[in-house]
Amino acid sequence: MVRNDRVQQILMHAFMILLVVLCVAPFLLMVMSSLTEEATLTRNGYSFFPQVFSLETYRYIIRSQGTILHGYVMTIVVTVIGTTANLLLTILFAYPLSRKDLPYRGVLSFILFFTMLFNGGLVPTYMMYAQTFHIKNTIWALIVPGLMMNAFYVIMMRSFFQSSIPVALIEAAKLDGATEFRILRSVIVPLSKPMVVTLVLMVGLNYWNDWANGLYYVTDQGLFTIQMILNNMIKNIEFLSRNASSLGVAASQMRIPQVGIRMGIAVVAVLPVLVIYPFLQKYFVKGIVIGGVKG
Amino acid sequence: MSKKKRGGAVAIKPEGSWGNVWSHRELYLMLLPGLIYLVINNYLPIGGLVMAFKQFDYSKGIFGSPWAGLKNFKFLFATRDAAIMIRNTLGYNAVFIVLGTVLAIAVAVIMNELRNKSAQKLYQIFILIPYLISMVVVSYIGYAFLSTDAGFINKSLLGGQRLNWYMTPKYWPFILTFIYLWKTFGYNSIIYYATVIGIDTSLYEAAVIDGANRWQSLWHVTLPGLRPTIITLTLLAIGRVFYSDFGLFYQVPMDSGLLYDVTTTIDVYVYKGLIVLNDVGRSAAAGFFQSICGFLLVMAANLVVSKLDKDSALF
User: Where does chain A show beta strands of DSSP type E?
Assistant: First the structure.
C-alpha cells in the first residue's frame, strides 16, 4: 500500500515534469537559436545545442536603435498610458456600481454586463474607429480600441469593493465630510491594493502583447511596437517564400533580419514579461482565480 | 447604522427620484468616462451591424450607403468559404473545450495530490508561462520547430527530411490543437485547482471512513465538487463557439494559402475580407452572423444551465 503510494507520487511528478519541460523547451529553443552563429544556424537548423555560439544577434539589435529600440520605447509608452487609462476607467466605474444606495444601479450594471454578451464585431468597430474617429496611424489606435476598459475586469473590481470594504467605513468617511472622490482615493483604493496590482498586471500584459490593433489600424512604421515589428517580419518571410521564384536574386538581397536575429527580437519581446512574472506570480494566479470562476 | 435608517426613511420617496439622484451626482460623474467609452467602443459598433444589409461605400459611410437587402448574405453563403469557416470555428472549439477541460482537470487533481508542496509551487509557476506570451511570438516559436529548411523537427528529429509543414493541411488540426492546449492548460488548471483546494476536507475524511480508496474519492468527492466550475467555464466557452483566437489561426499558420481549408475561422475570414481583400459586404455579413449566433448561444446555454443548476448560471 505504502509502496504503491510512492509509485503514484513518482508517476505524478513525472507527468508534471513532462508538462513543465513542454512549457519551457520552446523558449529555450528560441533563446538558443538567437545565440547561435548565423552560418551554423543555417546549416544545422534551430537547435537546443548550438555548435558555435555568437552574440552577433544582440549586437545587431543594440546597434539598430532606429527600429528595434524605438519599437521597445513605443511598447513601453503604449503599455504605461493604456494601463493607467484602463485602471482609471475601471476603478471609477466599479466604485459607484459597488454602492448599494446608487439609484439606477441595476440599469447601469446591465449596460456594462450586456457588452459581454453582445458586440458588433470587427467590421463595424473598424469602420467607426477608422472612418468616424480617424484613429488610423495615431498612437490612440494602439491604446483605445478594445483594450481600455473591459466589463470583466470592472465586475471583478466591483465584487472586490463589495466584499472587502465595509460599508461602515464609507459611512464614517462621509460623516467626516469627505467627498466621494476623496473616499475613493483615500479609503477605497488603498484598501484594494492587491486587487489593483492584479489588474495592473493583467491589463499591462494585454497591452504589452497586443499586435491586433496595430495590424488593423497602423501602417506607419514610426508607431510600430515590438510586437508589430515581429508581426511585420513574419509578413516579410511569407512574402519571400511565396514569391521566391519570381523574385529570384532580388529576394535574397532584401534587407530582412536573418534567422537568428528574428529570434533575438522575439526573445527581447518576451524577456521583460518572463523576468517580472516569477516575482508577481501570486498576483497573476489571484487574478485568474477571481476572474475565472465568476466575474 | 443610524445613517442607514435615515436612508430607509428617505426611500419612501421613489428611489429614482430627482432628489435622490442629485445627491449621488458625484458617483454619476465617476461613471461618466466609462459610459462614454462603452458607448463608443461597444454600443456604436452594435448599431453599425446594419452594414451587413448595405452596399457599403466608403465615401458615403455606413448610414449613407444604399440598402442591399440580403445580397451580402447570399454572396457569402453561395461560396464554399462559408461552410468551411463555420465548420472550422465550431469544430476546433468543440475539440478545444473537451480536451482543454479534461487536461486542465487532470493537472489540477494531480497538483492537489502531490505531497511535495514546494515542487508543486514550482510546477504552477512554469505551466503558466505559455499563457503570458503573445501569439506573434508563438508563431515564431512554431516557425523554429516547423520551418522546412531549418526547423528543429525536420533537421533534428526527422534527420534532415524536408517536410513542408506550412503547405500540408492534414497536420494542422493537430498542430493548432496542440498549441491551443499548450498555451491555455496552465491558466485553466489554475482555476480548477483553486476549486479543488476549496472542497471541504471533511468530505474526504468521511469518504475514507466509508472505506473509499483514492479513485473512489476522486470520483465521488472531487469531481462533484468541481461540477459548478466545470459548468460555468464550459458555458462561457460554449457561448463563444462562434469566436476563435484570431492570432492562433492567422499568425501561427503564417497565413499560408495552402492551409486555408483548415485554418480559416470566422474571425480570420472577417479580418481578411475587411482589410486584405476589401470585400466589406461579405465580411460584414459573416461578422453579423457571428455576433447574432454568439448572442443567441450565450442566452440559450445560460437558459439550459439555469434549468439544470440555478447556482451555476451566469445571470
Answer: none
What ipTM was assigned to the predicted interfaces of this complex? Answer: 0.89
A70 three-class SS: helix
Using the Cβ of B20 and the Cβ atoms of chain A, whether some distance falls under 8 Å is answered with: yes
The DSSP secondary-structure symbol of B272 reads I
In DSSP terms, which residues pair with B54 in a beta bridge? B67
Given an 8 Å threshold on Cβ–Cβ distance, is A121 in contact with B141? no
Give the separation between CA B219 and CA B2, rounded to whole angstroms: 51
| Chains A & B: contacts with CB separation below 8 Å | 295
* Phi-psi label, residue B200: left if phi above 0, alpha if psi -120 to 50, beta otherwise: beta
Give residues with Cβ within 8 angstroms of B139, minimum separation 6: A234, B247, B251, B252, B254
CA atoms within 13 A on the CB side of B301: 20
All cell numbers assigned to B115: 505531497
Domains of chain B, earliest start first: 1-41 (no CATH), 71-312 (1.10.3720.10)
Question: Is A51's Cβ below 8 Å from some Cβ in B?
Answer: no
Tens-level pLDDT at each residue, chain A (295 residues):
567 788 989 999 999 999 999 999 999 999 998 888 877 887 888 888 888 888 888 887 777 667 788 899 999 999 999 999 999 999 999 999 999 999 999 999 999 999 988 989 999 999 999 988 999 999 999 999 999 999 999 999 999 999 889 999 999 999 999 999 999 999 999 999 989 999 999 999 999 999 999 999 999 989 999 999 998 887 776 665 555 555 444 444 444 556 778 888 899 999 999 999 989 888 888 888 877 655 4
